[in-house]
Write a sequence for this structure.
């Protein structure tokens, strides 16, 4: 195996491995350094894929619990979860997909260098692992991703105070669990464990659940959580957590300033993720860092020539870079094409879809109503409830709505926000609409098949013009 490459990519997650494949497709000789035993990074091994596998089991249990209504004849016992089988099926899915990436590496003649990487000067990467070696390349790409982080005063012991990394491997359904944080990770696990039978409480520092979403979506999720029996406290701070042998004592400061104490089997810390740069040698390489993140320009160049970075580990001059697997992939592909000499295809960060796989699902793309107003647009909005749709009634999934945010002068769609069945699939149409700078009128004239969930998007467009047909 030669040690000289066109591109060395550090990290084989959703930013690194697509960048490697695209670079190889364009004729570059590529090596990927990955220290984990499997390719795919956090998303495939501990994040997107295993958590969605758990959510699919939760959805299956939901259907089984409503067997009588559906005309299903089950055994004499009430439907319940077999966590051993759940874990086995989840692990099988992950294994199949990670091996798929290994196949793609072989297909594209990409070298997987197993070990930990460290920047070692101009064009050099030191690898420690199965075999210590130094690699050289014309270009180096950092795609080391992110890891779960806590907040001051809360120490993660990975036994009773856990992160999503540990939550996906729990062998038994917790009797009770407190989820700290109501972003995508928090509300997804709240959904899973509530459906599995846990007593679930969500604690959120900000005034609303899923605080990055449009306020109409947050309000709808809060109503749904109340119906499901998921307790939640907003504008609330967890001030301390003390783990014991079989439980954790949690102290919270409530919105009125009073203190409340609760006990649960587990505290799941879902307060965000931080960049992974430990051992990378970023400071020694004199990379510009901002609060632990690697600074990049608009084409993913770092402050050091011939070193680029993509994914969860980066930040721009404008704060707020989203940590999303599909965004990392888009960045990795765009960077690989630039490194291969193709024109750089800039990413419009206002058109990145966000998906949350709780029940009901949430997805959004573009500006919220509040953001649009803050940017000076003359805004009009339209909403349409799923409960009116025949397809939603047939599926027994009637919660939620579609909200469209548009501007009045040119009728351009600025944002689409969905909470309800198949939301994470429906957002694709909205993302394309924003990409093509579509107007609401164009979306109205787009024929949506009947009976489908997608009719809610078309009806919301009609509603934006004040002319919803079925509401």
């Amino acid at each position: 195996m030669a040690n000289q490459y066109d591109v060395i990519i550090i990290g084989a997650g959703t930013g690194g491995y697509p960048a490697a494949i695209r670079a190889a497709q364009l004729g570059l000789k590529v090596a990927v350094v990955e220290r984990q035993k499997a390719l795919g990074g956090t998303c495939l091994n501990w994040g997107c894929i295993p958590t969605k596998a758990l959510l699919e089991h939760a959805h299956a249990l939901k259907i089984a619990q409503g067997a009588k209504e559906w005309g299903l004849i089950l055994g004499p016992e009430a439907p319940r979860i077999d966590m051993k089988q759940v874990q086995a099926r989840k692990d099988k899915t992950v294994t199949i997909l990670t091996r798929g990436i290994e196949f793609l590496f072989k297909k594209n003649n990409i070298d997987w260098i197993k070990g930990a990487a460290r920047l070692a000067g101009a064009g050099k990467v030191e690898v420690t692992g199965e075999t210590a070696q130094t690699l050289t390349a014309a270009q180096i790409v950092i795609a080391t991703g992110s890891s779960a982080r806590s907040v001051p005063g809360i120490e993660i012991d990975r036994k009773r105070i856990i992160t999503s990394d540990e939550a996906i491997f729990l062998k038994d359904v917790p009797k009770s669990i407190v989820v700290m944080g109501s972003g995508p990770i928090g509300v997804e696990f709240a959904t899973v464990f509530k459906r599995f039978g846990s007593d679930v409480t969500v604690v959120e520092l900000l005034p609303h659940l899923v605080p990055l979403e449009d306020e109409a979506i947050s309000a709808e999720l809060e109503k749904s959580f109340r119906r499901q029996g998921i307790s939640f406290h907003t504008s609330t701070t967890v001030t301390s957590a003390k783990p014991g042998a079989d439980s954790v004592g949690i102290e919270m400061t409530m919105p009125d300033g009073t203190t409340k104490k609760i006990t649960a089997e587990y505290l799941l810390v879902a307060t965000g993720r931080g960049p992974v740069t430990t051992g990378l040698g970023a400071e020694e390489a004199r990379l510009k860092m901002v609060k632990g993140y690697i600074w990049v320009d608009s084409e993913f160049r770092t402050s050091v020539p011939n070193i680029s970075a993509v994914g969860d580990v980066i930040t721009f001059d404008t704060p707020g870079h989203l940590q999303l697997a599909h965004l990392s992939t888009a960045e990795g592909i765009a960077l690989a094409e630039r490194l291969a000499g193709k024109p750089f295809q800039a990413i419009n960060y206002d058109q990145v879809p966000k998906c949350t796989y709780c029940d009901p699902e949430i997805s959004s793309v573009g500006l919220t109503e509040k953001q649009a107003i803050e940017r000076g647009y003359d805004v009009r909005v339209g909403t349409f409830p799923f409960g009116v749709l025949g397809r939603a009634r047939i599926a027994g999934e009637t919660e939620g709505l579609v909200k469209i945010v548009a501007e009045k002068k040119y009728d351009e769609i600025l944002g689409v926000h969905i909470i309800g069945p198949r939301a994470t699939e429906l957002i694709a149409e909205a993302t394309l609409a924003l990409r093509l700078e579509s107007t609401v009128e164009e979306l109205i004239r787009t024929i949506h098949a009947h009976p489908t969930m997608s009719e809610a998007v078309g009806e919301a467009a009609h509603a934006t013009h004040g002319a919803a047909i079925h509401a």
